């Protein structure tokens, strides 16, 4: 397994990061999930990513069980921000919630520290200084080694870096955006900004929520567990057209579409690690089998011709969308202030 530097933290991580979202939710067999984690570790994957909201704490408990006796082998990342119960203050990025959330994660993960603690989503209701101040205290207390973010727009990454510099706070060391052959939008601003600040980049959904496995084809009706997560994404005609054009590229390169997609994601010089999210041991074994695949310039040129650099063929149904796009009131003046036609 290839190893990379996690930004400028000095921490070395594998080019594949084992994502655990399917453990507990997609695969309810805890023992099987534990075996998958051990299989990944034995294959050289030393980077695990989870979140408190996955399975509403069940996934972190599975990870904690799996890492008993093997904690020192792993760079362990988790996330906070998602809703973890009823009530107005059991989510978000406030100091109040961060201090409670980290204790819950430490308990479930059966560890005294988290190697990478990440803001799961932007929080438009909380000042970034409030969030960074709380995370800085966790680093100084030894409960967290490094801090990062996920799904942040480029402008908010820059703002967070500026606030850290001006206020003497620990800065975000990593960003976790979505990235795949079908979703290349981060090549425009996110990746260049991360490069500028020396941030590690952990990309999620390098297989485009399953589309880049070749299991979902044009003219067929997907019918499996993932359909409840991303039904529109898996039936997007633009993406399905691209998949049909990518399949012969993979065939000509002598690799499966899955391995082509993973090699594409991990081959970008600004990507540290690609998060894999297997549900079964067979999925994991197939992904591990392609860990050494690399793509030459001819193959990359053919991919660029199908999906140009910086292009998103369509958003993932689970992607973060800023309030300015989801709330009409933020882009429309009140009726009384509108000019007469």
TrEMBL record:
Protein known as: Aldo/keto reductase
Keywords per UniProt: Oxidoreductase
Domain of life: Bacteria
Annotated coiled-coil segments of the chain: none
Pfam families: Aldo_ket_red
All residue ranges annotated as the NADP-dependent oxidoreductase domain in the record: 17-306
Cleavable signal peptide: none
SUPFAM superfamilies on file: NAD(P)-linked oxidoreductase (SSF51430)
Residue segments, region Disordered: 317-341
């Amino acid at each position: 397994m290839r190893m990379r530097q996690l930004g400028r933290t000095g921490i070395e991580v594998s080019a594949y990061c084992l994502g655990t979202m399917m453990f507990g939710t997609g695969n309810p067999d805890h023992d099987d999930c534990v075996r998958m984690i051990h299989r990944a570790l034995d294959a050289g994957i030393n980077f695990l990513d989870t979140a408190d909201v996955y399975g509403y704490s069940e996934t972190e408990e599975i990870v904690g069980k799996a890492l008993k006796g093997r904690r020192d082998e792993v760079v362990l990342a988790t996330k906070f921000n998602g809703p973890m119960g009823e009530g107005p203050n059991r989510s978000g990025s406030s100091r109040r919630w961060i201090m409670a959330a980290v204790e819950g994660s430490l308990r479930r993960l059966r560890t005294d520290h988290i190697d990478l603690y990440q803001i799961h989503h932007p929080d438009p209701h909380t000042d970034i200084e409030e969030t960074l101040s709380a995370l800085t205290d966790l680093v100084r207390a030894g409960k967290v080694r490094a801090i990062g973010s996920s799904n942040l727009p480029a402008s908010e990454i820059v703002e967070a870096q500026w606030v850290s510099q001006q206020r003497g706070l620990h800065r975000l060391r990593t960003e976790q955006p979505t990235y795949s052959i079908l979703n290349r939008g981060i090549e425009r601003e996110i990746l260049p900004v991360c490069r500028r600040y020396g941030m590690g980049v952990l990309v999620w959904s390098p297989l485009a929520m399953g589309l880049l496995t070749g299991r979902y084809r044009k003219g067929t009706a997907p019918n499996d567990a993932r359909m409840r997560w991303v039904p529109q994404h898996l039936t997007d005609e633009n993406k399905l057209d691209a998949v049909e054009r990518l399949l012969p590229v993979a065939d000509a390169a002598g690799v499966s579409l899955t391995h082509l997609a993973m090699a594409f994601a991990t081959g970008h010089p600004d990507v540290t690690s690609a998060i894999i999210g297997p549900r079964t041991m067979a999925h994991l074994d197939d992904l591990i089998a392609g860990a050494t695949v690399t793509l030459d310039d001819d193959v990359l040129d053919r991919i660029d011709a199908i999906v140009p650099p910086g292009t998103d063929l369509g958003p993932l149904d689970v992607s973060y969308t800023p309030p300015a796009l989801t709330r009409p009131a933020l882009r429309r003046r009140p009726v009384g202030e509108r000019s007469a036609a």
